[in-house]
Amino acid sequence: MITVSVKWQKELFQAVEIDTSQPAYVFKCQLYDLTGVPPERQKIMVKGGLLKDDADWSTLGVKQGQKLMMMGTADEIIKAPEKGPVFMEDLPEEEQVVALGHSAGLFNLGNTCYMNSTVQCLHSVPELKSALIQYSHSGRSNEVDQTSHMLTIATRDLFNELDKSVKPVAPMQFWMVLRKKYPQFGQLHNGVFMQQDAEECWTQLLYTLSQSLSSTGSSENPDTMKALFGIELVSRVHCQESGEESSETESVYSLKCHISQEVNHLHEGLKHALKSELEKASPSLGRSAIYLKESRINGLPRYLTVQFVRFFWKRESNQKVKILRKVDYPLELDIYDLCSDDLRKKLEAPRKILRDEEGKKLGLKASEKSSGSKDNDVKMSDAEGSSNRSGEPSIATSEEGVPSDSGTQMTGIYDLVAVLTHKGRSADSGHYVAWVKQESGKWIEFDDDSPIAQREEDITKLSGGGDWHMAYICMYKARVLPK
Amino acid sequence: MAKDSNDTKKNKKDEKRDEDLSEEDLALKQQLELYVERVQDADPNLQKVALESMRQEIRTSTSSMTSVPKPLKFLRPHYGTLKAFYETMGGSDLKKYLADILSVLALTMSAEGERESLKYRLEGSGGDIGSWGHEYVRNLAGEISQEYAKRQSEEVPIEDLMELVQQIVAFHMKHNAEPEAVDLLMEVEDLDLLIEHVDSTNFRRTCLYLTSSARYLPGPDDMLVLDIAYMIYLKFEEYPNALQIALFLDNMQYVKQVFTSCDDLPRKKQFCYILARHGITFELDEEMAANDDDREALQDIINNTKLSEGYLTLARDIEVMEPKSPEDIYKAHLLDGRASAGATVDSARQNLAATFVNAFVNAGFGQDKLMTVPSDNSSSGSSANWLFKNKEHGKTSAAASLGMILLWDVDSGLAQMDKYFHVSDSHVSAGALLGVGIVNCGIKNDCDPALALLGEYIDKEDPSIRIGAIMGLGIAYAGAQNEQLRSKLAPILNDAKAPLDVVAFTAISLGLIYVGSCNEEVAQAIIFALMDRSESELTEPLSRLLPLGLGLLYLGKQESVEATAEVSKTFNEKIRKYCDMTLLSCAYAGTGNVLKVQNLLGHCSQHLDKGETHQGPAVLGIAMVAMAEELGLEMAIRSLEHLLQYGEQNIRRAVPLALGLLCISNPKVNVMDTLSRLSHDTDSEVAMAAVMSLGLIGAGTNNARIAGMLRNLSSYYYKDASLLFCVRIAQGLVHMGKGLLTLNPFHSERFLLSPTALAGITIMLHACLDMKTVVVGKYHYMLYFLVLAMQPRMLMTVDENNKPLSVPVRVGQAVDVVGQAGRPKTITGFQTHTTPVLLAAGDRAELATEKYIPLSPILEGFVILKENPDYREEDH
Asked: Which of A23, A75, B52, B374 is 20 to 30 A (C-alpha) from A55?
């Protein structure tokens, strides 16, 4: 019989007796009483390793008063969770996109950045995506020619591919079809494809899509593209000489922003562009005269496209030369004063609601501040409730289906969602890049194959006035209210 | 002829100038000229009087050395005449007198290399050497060293010289010119003389000069110099200093002698603290501490059992006990919208990075927010939840991270690790084994829990479990030279069936256990393993750990490596050069040997065929050798800049790591900038190495600038998983131990190099030479080798019973006071704090109170304070 002391965690058990004639298991049972650690989980350090259950004390050389150390706990043993976590690295590529928070980039196929940036901007319109999905192979009607159909299909496939991959996509098919449809994009210079004007690409692509999508025969939305991008203009054409006045309406896919000496802001440029002079034959005078054309917006699209007229044709150098003037543009655009009187009337009611809600939010915040500690809880919950109510309509735009007048109301207020910028001195050179706002609210710069996260403040800094990227086309999304 | 004309010209000039002289000077000049004439007089009495007067004039004037003494100046033209006359004199006292005067005059007149001053001195009357002034003695010393070298080569007796040396040394030592005395003795190779001449007023300066000059001495001389310093310290009972030198010499006999010479218990405790910081295994015996209880208390300190306690006291004092989560370190909110949005799905790599960050940041605190959080309502605690948020081998690192969090706290560490031993997942078990090793890092325990627990796993089937156990043993028993372990581990090396990775880790662990021991048997075993392995295996990245294991055996042991280096020449050519470089760099690590640095630079200047890899360790080697002292370090940084510009890609990949080693836990701004530049390199491996090194140079400093850089890098590389992983690890390193730890293997004012610490860093850096397969691959747990170098960067003052004692101290930038006269200030720009305090790289502390006397002259780590018996509370 010898006595030892046993150290277990931070405790020390003095004078534990060992009956050397018994196997070590007995000793372990003694310790079980002391510590509550079951014998099979006890680890006792002796010379040469751990104490075995059947060890013979005489061979271990444990001395009187020796300090032994025991390790072991009575804690529950950890079990692996039945279902292990799923790691991003193991996910299929489509799901990784969701985790990534933005879609893939597009490879440059040789001066195709104008095309890539256009595609990226349009790709950010969910309604266009869903309209394209509805477009089927077989649904081709006779009104649409073969190449337009192919371009539409190619666009649909490319959008699809962009959504599903993490790695950059090479838009080969799309590029080929686009050249086929519009051979001017296939111009070669020294054996390589030339840089092209992104605005031209944008316009042509939208035109083709509007052609093919309006003729799908699907009865629901015969004029998808018009609802999405079309701007109704009503113009008063007035001749000062003869006093003749006439009015005409037209539909365009983008507003122009003229840039002249006086223009410092997008709004001024838009106003400028809606007034124009034209020369035409006056029936009353019997000769051509100067007519003044003043246009106003009469119908609002879901997505308002604004083109900065930054390029003009310079005959001497035989190229499109860029105006570097800085023109600021806002993140939130209100076009109320560009609208016709009819439209203004229609807009007033929804705008009031919107204003009220915003006012309520601000007002509530103010009252929250002023109100003391009393009945704070009630107010808090009030505020939450109302902010939820007010938040929803402005954010939640139905992503499925095309908006129709029946579902929502326009307010004339637009939020910036995509910017296509150009860097360089002429339209046929330099570099085009798309800056697109994601559903998460984050901005991504799509520089061909590399998407780069950007800050919202930096987006408004693309307004020109230097050699940095400057906005060429801006796309705004309407803020709407449900009816 | 020309000379003559010169002389006449000069004379004319002199005459001209005579007119400018003041009356006083003119009188002196004429007086001296008269003496010169009289000396040549036939009458010996007259001669004697003249000589005496001349001597008088010279002596009175040489006392001030601000300008050329006038008598010497006026006697210059007569030096030739006197010399000629001297030759004609018969042997007499007078002749000796004249010899004395000539010897002084030769100070300014003697042609270069003639050593006339010495010649006449030896022929002169002897007498008090100092009476002729300081400058004269100094000149004489210079001539002696020349003469000595000449006589040595001609094998002419030197007794007369040595007599003079005695006089000069005595003079210098009395007059605050210890460096001159030491220099002279080093020249005449008789440092032993010093011991007779040091006294309590000058031994400190003498020893300081000796120890700091040792760094720049070649071959055996440096050891000799340190030997002398050791003996002087021992003579004056400055035991802590003596102990440091003993440790520097790695001479356990001397260490023992220090213990036996001193019989004051508190002092012995202080020795133990110094030994513990150095990280060596040392057993006290009865001779060193007679009383059993005392011995146990002392051994406890050496075994570092109190380290955890002290560290936690420091943490509580600085108020950083609150655990930090990886998010607190990433500070993603400071990055505007750049951080990846999709946090919805766990990324295994990001979770692994978080595991490491969590481990490094909360190292030693015993609590964190991932691994040690108490079980919640769910069946298994959330610690298990986090564990299983890692994938496969990631779970190994996760389980081992618990060991890091509970670092040095063996008792609760083992208790908490226990639960992982019962998990069936082999990766978790491997991590648990490794974790046990990490908990025990630097701590010795009589019960040897690590050996008992891990011992039985090293021969298991599963290779990952084996690696966990082997690596754990290596970390726990680094430097222990444990025979039992050798007999268990060595057979694995030569087991042909063992997988390569198991063998590689065994070699590393044996290298660690026998670090710097030059152990023959271990070396043999590794060499055989290297010879047995097939050529294809030798091209695998992990096989490079075998030469490293071999190199560690000779860490800092210089020439002792040569026999093994010879053997390595017979290895397969795939590994031969790699082995050569590794051995060389390890053997001269921390010596500052300039020749070896040049040798290694030479290897780096070659442009290689593809597939040769030995330049990586060569570049690391430059850093390992040059890191010893500040000057060499600066030079190495510049050389590395050149390598960056002209070197091949494999060199460029190693350069950031070498920079990281040179400035480890010492963020120098120029190096920081270089690494920041490299972190954007187009070669991703260069960038990864640079990012890692940013972590290393800032390790444990909380350096805001590096933290900012890394934060920006994290958004810059948010898409590149591998680089982001490295950025995260680096962030974890910068905030290591919440800023309380250092990785610097040098301690005691950069004098001592802890071999285990350096070994740990070296292994990690060698692993980083192949980022893709090792760190970013499946052997990321090799990062845990850094634990060997982790030490609190604190000054903790304790009383004689090891209880913390709070006293004011001044902490400031250390000033080099070597060779300076008087009692110069040793720190500059200081601030006063109360202990415990943190010490940054290059900081030095001194007590700001007279109330206590520190038992160690170097205030670092644990320092015992003794009450000052002469202290009187000041009355205000």
From this structure: A75
Rounded to the nearest angstrom, the minimum Cα separation between A121 and chain B is 20
Q: What is the pLDDT of residue B377?
A: 42
- Cβ atoms of residues B338 and B366 within 8 Å: no
Query: Mutating which of B414, B416, B485 best tests the A interface, going by the most A Cβ atoms within 10 A?
Result: B414
Average pLDDT for B823-846: 90
Gap from A49 CA to chain B (nearest CA, Å):
4
Please provide the average confidence, as pLDDT, over all residues in chain A. 79
Catalytic residue list contains A113: yes
Is the CB of residue A63 less than 8 Å away from at least one CB of chain B? no
> Helices (DSSP H) in B390-425: which residue ranges?
393-405, 410-421
Stretch B692-710: mean pLDDT: 95
Closest partner CB to B456 (pick from A50, A79, A84):
A50
pTM of the model: 0.77
Q: Are B418 and A80 inside 8 Å of each other by CB?
A: no
Cis peptide before A482 (omega within 30 of 0): no
Q: Do B342 and A50 touch (CB under 8 A)?
A: no
Tell me how far apart the alpha carbons of residues B751 and B747 are, in angstroms, rounded to a whole number: 6
Determine the average pLDDT of the residues in A139-161.
79
Contacts of A78 in chain B (CB under 8 A): 380-381, 383-384, 387, 419-420, 422-423
Written as six digits, the tokens of A209 are: 């899509």
**Does A79 lie at the interface with B, CB-CB under 8 angstroms?**
yes
**A9–chain B Cβ distance below 8 A for any pair:** yes
Tell me what pLDDT residue B341 has: 44
> Catalytic: A149?
no
Q: What is residue B89's DSSP assignment?
A: S
Where is pLDDT greater, at B430 or B63?
A: B430
B850 versus B123: which is more confidently predicted?
Answer: B850
Cβ of residue A442 closer than 8 Å to a chain B Cβ: yes
- Give pLDDT, residue B58: 76
